[in-house]
Queue: 4 jobs
Job 1
Amino acid sequence: MLGRDGNISIVRAGLIAGIIGILVIVGGVISFFLDRSQHQQPLRIDPYPNSVEWGSRVWSSISTSDLFQIPGVSAEDVESYYQQKMDDFYGMDADLAFRLCKRDPVAGNYPAYDRGEEGVAPYQIRCLFDDSGFFITRFTLIVIQPGVGENSGMTLVEHQYTWQK
């Protein structure tokens, strides 16, 4: 950095600053494309242990669902499993309102269930795993319902995947 006369050389200092700037820009571009490629596939969350695959749906080229049945386990037990997954995914420092599974309705049952309408679950629980990035969308919504009718005695779980290409 010092010139022949022992003083700081402006040309050498500028050259070093320019090289550092180019390296920072190249690193940012590489980081952006790595992040983008990761978000171009579904965010997979491990299903509840001993879940039985029940089917899948393709909604579009960027949205699919996997369906699971869990015999002999309550919806609340399944919720606890996914709540632990959310705590691990977001970390305990994340906004509490964002990282909690949510029951709908908050209390009681859906009115249609109380009226005895066939095939209507009493309630559902939703857990959102959001891994969206800079102008990139990627999340998985877990929907948990107690089984009714022919699915009585089971908990039904749907993993709804959405991502961006």
Job 2
Amino acid sequence: MDQTERKITKIAREVSKFTVQTMKEEGIGTAEFDFIHLIRHNPGITQAQVREQLKIDKGAAARRAASLESKGYLYRKENPKDHRSQLLYATEKAEKLKNSKTSIEGIFYEWLLSELPEEEKEAFCRTLDTLYWKCKNQRRAGFVDVARLVEEAESEQEDGK
């Protein structure tokens, strides 16, 4: 039984909703932010590679790229290996957007913790840090332990049918 009742996920979802709402006021939607994020982490990526990684169709990728270019969040350079395609790069404005998102989330989390007594807040943050590093290390290990638990749970469900 999940003792957390997925509350970490639910809190993160609420923060995300607020962040999206705030970013929309800046003219950026979730899909566009994902597009920018991918380009920021993969400078010089092609539009075809963006399509593959984000699992979007050719038209959607072209529209998003054109929109973000017109808004000043990305620029294109000709691909020297294939003159038919272009390489995508994030602009300084895109970098500031990342900082804006981080700032918005930080403000929300500060607000969320603001009414906790300092001692509780510190203990909670230590616990979060412990959980974060457990997750991070599990991911680095390929999620082997968690995947095994999922398989066991599925096997038990099949046996119970």
Job 3
Amino acid sequence: MNLLLKYLSLCWFKNNPIQLFPSKAFMWKAVIFYLFSGIIVESLIADPADGTLEVSLRTIMAFSSIAAYLLVFKKWQYFNQMYTAIFICENFIMTLATLTEGLYFFLVMKHYEYAEEVSIAIAVVLVVWYIAIVSYILRQAFDTKMSLSVTLAFSYFVLTYGLPMLFMDI
């Protein structure tokens, strides 16, 4: 539980992911939670088979992107710490996004006039926060300038969400 709290503190821009050493079980639990929560959310939006395929593609792109960044910066030895840090924070944001979907459903059932606007506003905040978290993690790991880490985080977002979504539209 202590390790989970240390990883979650990355969401508030505290700690350095390189200084956290997850066990194999902890790392795989983070990935499994990522897969299951993503499949549940995507299955609510689209067909369960399509949702499963899209989340699988996102997972492959996430691992590939993290690996590519680590190879470019010659920090391959931090692969476990990096993917665990990003997946834990992504799981946290995904949980908040799921709660936002629940809030949207509740507001629609209550016939709240601005339900869609509220939901979209929260989604925008979550996406910006997510990019900021990934940027922080990358900046801590690679000791880069903020502009480069934000660019890498935005690229990571496009690679892990945009490409699988584009593939699913084909």
Job 4
Amino acid sequence: MASPSPYRPPEQSSAGQLFDSLFVVALVAATLLVCLYLTVLSAAPAPAPEPAAQTTAVAEAPAPAADASTNTAAATAVAAAPSADGLTADQQKLKTERFTALGWDDAKVAERKAAIAAKSYEIDWLMLILTAVVVIGYFVFLVRASDKELREVINERFGPASGTQTKESS
């Protein structure tokens, strides 16, 4: 009786492997670009910032020489003390000046912070459930297809199963 030839799985060429790899990379890049377009680029454009108003420095009267060192030390101590948001007085002043130059007042800044905080933690439950169903469905498909292919390989390699007899008992 002739013994069956040993099983040789099909081989993929190097060109096929390269094509598969590049195709997967292209799909990942396309997915990321579509997500970027849907979330960032399709949003309404922000209004153009208004031109900064010219500010004029107010000239202060020079302090007496004896008080100058005391005032400088006091100003440095106040500027070095961090505020509630972790910024020093100088940093807070610079931040306020920059927001003012952009035409943003405290109310607008607070409104934007609230909008960002509200948007950051939203969960679309329908999309979450849909994503879970798709992932679970794909997993079930993958397991069933792999099981079918495994049974085909076993049948090709060892022949069809005949009853409950195993290879070891024959």
